[in-house]
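The instructor's notes for this session suggest beginning with a concrete chain rather than abstract definitions. Hand out the sequence below and ask the class to guess, before any prediction is shown, which regions might be ordered.
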Amino acid sequence: MKQIYVNQIGERDQVDSVFLVRDRIQAMARNGKPYMTLKLMDSTGEIEARVWDRVDEFARLFEKDDFLHVSGRGNLYMGKMQLVVQQLRRVAEEDVDLADFLPVSKRPIAEMRAELEQLLASMNDGSMRKLLLAFFDDSDFFRLYSRAPAAKGMHHVFLGGLLEHSLAVADLACDVARRYAQVDRDLLIAGALLHDVGKTAELSYERSFDYTDEGKLVGHIVMGVEMIEERSRTIPDFPRQQVMLLKHLLLSHHGQYEYGSPKRPKMLEAVILNFIDDLDSKINGIQTHIEKEPERTADWTSYHRLYDRYFYAPVEAKKSDPLPPVEAVTKTPEAPKTRRTRDEPLGFTLGEQLAGQNLNLFVNENEKKD
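After discussion, reveal the predicted structure:
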């Protein structure tokens, strides 16, 4: 039977394919009968699978991160597709292609490497560029940096995700630096490229995506700071002030103590990094959630547990009258602006002012609910 990928499984489809076991849990049903819940994945996504029969027998055949040849049937349960397992057997790693089972960045690594090279060449701070080259000219390090995901579950959860995310944050950093002359562009770029560098060791990504022991005990922020200290020591006379500032960007990039930041942002560049990192992470997380439901017929997505909401994403873009070209829009000349005195009326009627106040109240209340 032809291999069926996760994103192709439909209601009552008979499935006979190989998957990677991301997780497995054994439990007892209310009737005292054992059952097993699996999370199976391939390069297109993951699906929950249930084993109701021969649980003890099947459980002895495999472990988490093994490859399984699964025979089963697609079943729609509470709006989500499941796989009811009828038969399974373990498959040896040498008989599969790992690229078929882990999601991979849509951007080629060579393309992202070229973008990284251009970014480094644009930097004026020679010391900061040397530090970045100490990382990226190390082929062993770059192999990990270009393969690691950016997170286990929130955003950019695919091979190459760390590199793609870091470049996107660096691109946003360049945009911000163009608009605000007081921003140290090179420091901000370095922070963007290295803010998650510790994830090369915090996460494991040879089979499924998970945390290493060091990742659980230490975490990528502290690990990244240690890596910067170690690399900077290999560069003769590297400015200790620069090391301190870059460390602060890493230590504060989560923004708040409750989000895992050992320090809160206390520099302009640190505040910017916190916001643009969060921006790119959330955009990717929401886009991924929307794209996981290609067969959706409603204009609202399913509930997103981590963001605690549904998202409006119309199945068909709503048509609207095209806007006139910019050059065709004529502006009415404005009267010269003068400073209004404290007692001078705003020029609105009482009804208009009250309507504005009610609108503000409505917006504020809805913001609280969200």
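Then share the key points. The CA atoms of residues 121 and 129 lie 8 Å apart. The first strand starts at residue 14 and ends at 28.
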